[in-house]
């Protein structure tokens, strides 16, 4: 899993915390758990202006309080077909009503019954309440146990607690669960346990004390006799047996993880802002020598020289740069091949397969998903993470539809794609940890592809996605079977983070320049000009400011011969600031010739996904523009990737 972006705050025993732990683990979403003594989350809640109810879930866009808010936020982030509350509006209304019944009629009375009895068993209740909490809180609980117990009783309203009514409420919910499972299947989710089952089982935990709970529960022998009788009675019900079967499917909880703190930036990076780099690139294109060399490395800055380098694929090669890494993680692919029959054969297969893919599902995703994510984020919490809450998941959903590979979860698909991309194209320092992670991720991706290929073969499934089209080419023996995996993996790894990085860079520029944002907003409905604006903004802040090649013997670079093995750096950022080609490069002009840009490569190694990104990136920006992305904000990076860009959403009147 990637490092966590969310934190679960509260006592480890809380059913709400358990619910979110389990849902995150099922979706392979990493989380940090910040445990506190029961009741001590209340000052945190009030300081943040949110309800006191657990769980508290902290994310880059803010903190929610209470199970209902946490589940709504979780549902909002789910991809279509996997939404927590269901897909149709009728199903969502029904399931949300059931969840609220589970919360009010099972979870809340169950927690009260637990503390009503367990507060009389000091050793056992403290053993559960102090799991994972700071040392000072453990000392407080031991020294001031009576005060803490009084606070819990008052907070839960146990002085006048009607236990019989609570038991009746729980029995009514258990009856409802029994009725629903008889009508819809052995589980609340149907044939197999789903999100509803997890919510139910966790809500029932205080009166069942199930095995496989995500935190250590009191030993049955340590329970007060009356509470032991309640647990036995609940376990004997149909609903109790259902919860036990659901818990039997649970895997081990995630090992403890921490959200990474913001990385300390080097002094150099504080000065080399995008604006400074852009200004330097413009000066280099105008005044620097055509090439600058040091050791066995040369740089070229002018558009004509950079274009010449990228066209001259016979003596300025890409294979020495990319082939070894690409082959190690996913198998031979065109971005690691120089001019050869194999390259042209694979490239023709790529474009032939892409031509056969139905565009309708992709268009539907780009029409609906950006709007849905923005609308739900605008309602709560009123802000959105442009990278991991918007561009990256939308790109992942498009990729899953286009390529036919979904992965075990969306989080896993994004993790694997990023790890492979990092090793393949961005591991310039040859970091061993990055390499090992990328190779392992490549093996996972290959396994997913092979499993889906075998499933379709077994069931004779033909689909109009890229995997389906490549399978047809393999059946016609136009490509080898193993090439299907190589091509699919090679294309998929760049499809998610390239889009997310480009979108983050565009939004960052818009928030830094209100006049630019207003100008782009005026063209939001003009797709041609909007595409031009996106290209222009990426000219100022491209996602790939350089491209690398290696020279063969007697290769020429910017009018001068260089030795074999020389690393050639084509500075595309500088080339796209060259006034000889881009007149008045400091000005933004959405009507420039699209063929001049180098965002997605140049020459025979153009990005195969450039046509998709010419639609996808403007679609992401167009959906965002009505929310007035004018407030300055900054990108937070993880390694070479933009990973967080929080934008307050202000719908236009």
UniProtKB/TrEMBL annotation:
Coiled coil residues, start to end: none
Keyword Manganese (UniProt): no
Keyword check for Transmembrane: no
Cofactor: heme
Gene3D superfamilies linked to this entry: Cytochrome P450 (1.10.630.10)
GO molecular function: heme binding; iron ion binding; monooxygenase activity; oxidoreductase activity, acting on paired donors, with incorporation or reduction of molecular oxygen
Pfam family of the protein (one): p450
InterPro entries: Cyt_P450, Cyt_P450_B, Cyt_P450_CS, Cyt_P450_sf
UniProt keyword terms in alphabetical order: Heme, Iron, Metal-binding, Monooxygenase, Oxidoreductase
TM helices/strands, residue ranges: none
Family: Belongs to the cytochrome P450 family.
Name recorded for this polypeptide: Cytochrome P450
